[in-house]
Amino acid sequence: MTKILFAVGGTGGHIFPAQALASDLVSRDATNEILFVGGGLADNDFFTAEHINYKEVSYSPLSIKALLKCAYKITKGIIQSKKILRDFKPDIVIGFGSHHSFPALAAAQLLKIPVMLYESNSIPGRVNRLFSKYSVVTAITLGDIMGRLQGATTAVKMPLRQGCQRSEEERTKGYQYFGLENDKTTILVFGGSQGAKAINDKFRVAIEAMTHVEDIQVLHFVGKTSKPEEYQTFYKERHIPSCVKTFEKKMNLAWQVADIFIARAGATTLAEQEAFEVPGILIPYPYALDKHQDSNARFMAETVGGAMTLYEEQCTPNALEEAMRNTIIIKSFMRDNIAAFKEKDRRKDLADVVEDTVKKIKGENIHLIGVGGIGMSALAKILIKQGYNVTGSDVKKNAITNTLEDRGATISVGHNASALPDNASVVYSTAVKDDNPEYKAAIDKKYTIMHRSDMLLKLMKGYKTLAVAGTHGKTTNSALLTHVLITAQCSPSYAVGGILLNTGTNSDAGDGEYFVAEADESDGSFVKYSTHAAIITNIGAGDHLINYSSQDALDEAFITFAGKVSKSQNLYYSNDDERLRSLGISGITYAFDNDAHIKGSNYKQNGWESTFDITIDGKEYHNIMLPQAGKHNARNAMAIFAMALDLGINDATIRKAFETFKGVARRCEYKGTAAGVDVYDDYAHHPDEIKATLCAMKKALGTKPLIAVYQPHRYSRINETLHFFTDTFDAADKVIMTEIYSAGEKPVEGITSEAIAQKIQNNSTVPIHLLTRESLAEKITLLLSDGDTIVTLGAGDITYAGDETLKTLQDIPVECHI
Description:
By secondary structure, the chain is an alpha/beta fold. It contains 28 helices and 35 strands.
């Protein structure tokens, strides 16, 4: 449970965001306890409707003229607030600006209670400016264009009431609710809590000049200083369909029916305008503090392109009439501008920022079970960089856990309930079983528990996610995509299933708008991701069936994943893959050997390098070089080339990135040479992956002997794929195979290395040597000759065998070298 005190009062621009945030926080966690403290809200029905408490305290505008009266009221309010804070004991106090929040914020500062601020306007108010240097963080929606805030800031979207998005169903309800027609251009007019009468007077003259325009109607909220019946009579006499009210609580429905609007430039108006994508005419309130509404209006008109601005002194009835006519003409263009701005907007949700800030204040730990794995460690590194206290555990320490410790994480060896820290959120992967002591302890302690994929979703929030999926090739291609974005100075965030040799890490939190994610299909969790753009490399047969009921179920998961890409033009998939081709997915295809939107040709492998041409929409890109062997790598690189072009990266930059790509650890990674033997390491463990790796290597090596050192991975996986081991090792000159790496699984009758060897020998003449993993390096050296190349293959501890072999070869006396 988190206790949060909201310091708030004043106009709707301060109150509405606070109310929306409170509702969001309670909906996320019903145990959250929220208390509003401020002034002028005693009659607000929000608190009764939402069952949230409110306490009024004394307040006053900051005034030099009435200094003694002001000082008395504020001092009284601070004393009242101190008592409330002592009784309520909040974890944090959030201020929303306006002088009504001053007493509670001052009391929190005196009691050393952490403070956070929210500023909705582009020019912050006096209270927020004053307290910003004491705030843990100030969340800002329209920026701080004059640099008046001190301390940390973060960009957020303004929290809005539920239902703030366009909907045809709600639009129909809106026409019915307001009694308006659905085939006319609806002009929404309102002045809010400030300056409605001035807009009303000018609009009445301006609209009279447009009475001959037959397809317009008016939805007008005239405010408390004007009489709605006068305007109703005015519109009726001029045969203008209308609905006139003093004020409207159901503003969601008003925005739904609006085609254009005329209003002041308050922050809430701009946020709702953006949410509903309604073009408008903004008339900034001339008496707003620091003329912040002028700045707000310029943001929407110039940065977004979604409005025209008429300043009060310019807003004559004639000017307003002309602006209305022009806005009606270009309303579609303006609406597209707003939609485009929303598409690239990566400001965070304020509720997320509040939750994260509270966790850091409380010193909450994030504990990752199995943190030594490549996927979990990617999350850990990002969380550490974002300032969280990270703990984790694994069966033993390795290079990954050592890196995490160097970055500040606390790592425990083994899985014990005692490893679980106090006050923790716990992250687990599919590999963690229900009987894991830490997992069980987390349930018993009622800690927040989330799957690895849900934590990744949380980290991706606010970014444009670029995902790479497919049963084979995900890691290499998500790494290559990341390297392209880095080369283009896009500063991406990324979480990849391997160490990028260019960066030395598998994840990072960048400053740019993109997040590259390797989308893991193995447990089906990738269907959770809603992505901006995605690549699907292939769908292998017989893989992950322990987690899927059938191959058809795996195919359906990919169809679901494809359907959650933002638009079909942003999905790229291989048309050379038979299963993908058969699914009927809507997207952009790429291929060497079949028809496709992105067509590859002239593939050549020169040693360890590939060159090829690409044709996209009739434009040819010749002699693209990739420092990786294998047509499969070139094929998937085509999708990355096309995606990068669509993201606005020029082809020269993409070529440079391709040419400088060093690859990924354990993907045909060169480990070294000793005694004339070259050693490579590769993660390939599925028959299709092994075959692709060996064929590419053999083509690069030519006549040099290639020895595959293969460690089968998991009994369940071999049980699923045994019948595919036919021509898997045909490109090798010799195969050395160990016993199956169980990864904690129990043996399956009949599933052994001997069974795999028999399957291979039934279809191939390649020599096979069955050896045990123990002391493997010493045994391997007896089977090697000068000039051989060996590659270790598998997802288990075979990765260490390459280094072990190099050391063994180096330790052999020179006169005994092979």
